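Module 6 notes. Inverse folding takes a fixed backbone as the condition and produces residue identities as the prediction. Think of it as a translation problem where the source language is geometry and the target language is the twenty amino acids. Below is one complete input and output pair. Work through it position by position during the lab.
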């Protein structure tokens, strides 16, 4: 009988709470790649993303006793990683919300283009190019699934600012991905 992912998570959780270094390493390895991608999508810089991830995993390991085993371990870790990324930018005062983005496209400039075979790496590369504030709002809305009201509360901005940053980020991404597709033809 195969062990479910949930059962595996509970074994890892118990081992980590018992300070079993081997199981702590397994937990880290199990979630490292996905959580690093989240950090990278918020940061845009690999070195900075590693710092954020390290801080997040320290929080994970020091807060494991507060985890409710009825919930998803991955979801709980994801929330810590996301909050750590947001806190990182808040401390650095790097979240700047621009009224205009350089080279913001007009709607008719792109037309309707069907993005075929874009890889996650290509999309992430372009997300990393967004200004910090827009990138964080884009990730919270498009990736994490938060509503603009929640984003505004988390970031200390207005709901309108959240919506405008998301739309500008989305439009820039469409433009860059359109230009990327054209360059491949």
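Target side of the pair, the amino acids:
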């Amino acid at each position: 009988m195969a062990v479910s992912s949930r059962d595996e998570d509970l074994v890892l959780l118990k081992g980590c709470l018992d300070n079993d270094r081997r199981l702590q390493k397994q937990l880290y390895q199990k979630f490292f790649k996905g959580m690093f991608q989240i950090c990278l999508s918020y940061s845009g810089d690999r070195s900075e993303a590693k710092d954020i991830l390290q801080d997040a995993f320290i929080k994970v390991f020091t807060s494991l006793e507060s985890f409710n085993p009825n919930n998803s371990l991955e979801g709980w870790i994801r929330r810590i990683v996301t909050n750590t990324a947001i806190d990182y930018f808040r401390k650095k005062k790097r979240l700047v919300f621009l009224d205009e983005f350089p080279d913001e496209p007009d709607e008719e400039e792109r037309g309707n283009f069907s993005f075929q075979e874009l890889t996650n790496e290509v999309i992430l590369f372009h997300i990393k190019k967004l200004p910090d504030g827009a990138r964080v709002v884009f990730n919270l809305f498009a990736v994490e699934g938060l509503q603009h009201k929640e984003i505004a509360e988390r970031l200390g901005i207005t709901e309108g600012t959240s919506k405008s940053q998301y739309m500008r980020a989305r439009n820039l991404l469409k433009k860059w991905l359109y230009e990327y597709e054209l360059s491949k033809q």
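Reference fact for the lab report: The chain has a mean pLDDT of 83.
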